[in-house]
# Entry
Amino acid sequence: MTGELSPIDKAKFVAAKRAAEFVEDGMRVGLGTGSTAAWLVRCLGEMVREDGLRIRGVPTSTRTGQLAREAGIEVITLDEARWLDVTIDGADEFDSDLNLIKGGGGALLQEKIVATASDQMVVIADAGKEVGTLGAFALPVEVIPFGASCTRTLIEETLVSMDVLGRQVSLRMNGDAPFMTDEGNHILDLHLKRIGNVRQLSLVLNQIPGVVENGLFIDICDTVVIGYGDGRVEVRDINEGTVEKGRLDFVESDNLFSDLAD
Ligand SMILES: O=C[C@H](O)[C@H](O)[C@H](O)COP(=O)(O)O
# Structure
């Protein structure tokens, strides 16, 4: 089964597998959304089923909640948890300050709420997600449907006034209809190429009426676990830099690979 996985999936898997070690018995855990976070949920599910790990998970999307339940993880709401020990989630981009772009899957709002309600946020990513400057990945902005075209115009004017490169804004679609988030909102993707001042852009965007949240995660992530297609894993800490370099063995995880291949 291992041979059927692409290098990118192996990279995501080893990052998730290593990050699962941050989770200890009794913890309340924020569960991210996306293809990398899905690996984490499967890893944690295996630890619950086979090692007796007792955790309660707070999912960041409907689909992660479903996956977690299927994996055997007890799912609770953020309000029930009140506070989380750790959140582990994927990212679309991360930079050397561990600032992120998230929301490629449209889950940025719940993800940001959950991550900021956690003692620690650990990001899991394949090495291709690392960038010198955020912005090559289109920045998702969640907006309420009411007046969305006016909100879009205001965003475009804001980008012009900030002299941001790129500036193209597109409404994310799902077939012929606008993409709907779990909160019933729309996503505008900002094609910026390069974001010079992430802090300022994030603040300015969130001041526009109609904008619910943007996909810039600034000063939220504490640790990034970077996976490589050959099994190498690097753990990078916001204060200490690279704290670990290692390699994970695929063989012991064959049943997980089998699950995914089904
Ligand atoms: O809305 C989706 C999330 O922010 C994801 O964590 C992000 O898009 C990364 O997803 P993936 O692990 O599939 O690349």
About this structure: Helices lie at 7-19, 35-51, 62-71, 78-81, 108-116, 148-161, 198-206, 254-261. The radius of gyration is 18 Å.
